[in-house]
Amino acid sequence: MCSACLKPVYPMEKIVADIHIFHKMCFCCKHCKKTLSIQSYTPLHGSYYCIFHYQQLFKRKGNYDEGFGHTQHKTQWLLKTTVDESEA
Predict the structure, then answer these.
(1) DSSP structural state of residue 12
(2) Strand pairing of 41-44 and 14-17?
(3) Is 65 strand, coil or helix?
(4) How many Å separate Cα 75 from the centre of its chain?
(5) 27-36 LR contacts (CB < 8 Å, sep 24+)
(6) Which of 48, 49, 68 shows the shortest CA–CA distance to 58?
(7) Which backbone phi and psi does 29 adopt, to 5 degrees?
(8) Is 65 buried (19+), middle (13-18) or exposed (0-12) by CB count in 10 A?
């Protein structure tokens, strides 16, 4: 089954990226929707990007979280530290 369209995938049209199976046409960049190949993709947080947009989104915020629409991990650490200090 294709991870993107949930339809059956035949061996001749199958691409395996990480542990996910895709049709060749369903394996595309989350940002620009350009069709990807095994040599031209970058995975992050369960999404796939073309190398150009992966670099562009990283440069926008300077980290791998905010540039891709996720909160930074350091905020989770700060919240945990604040909770630990209030319990002590």
Answers:
(1) G
(2) unpaired
(3) coil
(4) 20
(5) 28/4, 29/53, 31/57
(6) 68
(7) -65, 135
(8) middle
Provide the CB-side half-sphere exposure for 87 (13 A, CA).
6
Element (H, E) at 23: strand 20-23
pTM above 0.90, yes or no: no
In single-letter form, the type of residue at position 65 comes to D
> What are the pLDDT digits (tens) for 14-54?
999 888 899 999 999 988 999 998 888 888 878 898 988 88
β-strand 14-17 against 20-23: which pairing, if any? antiparallel
Name the more confident of 2 and 46. 2
CA 40 – CA 45 distance, rounded (Å): 17
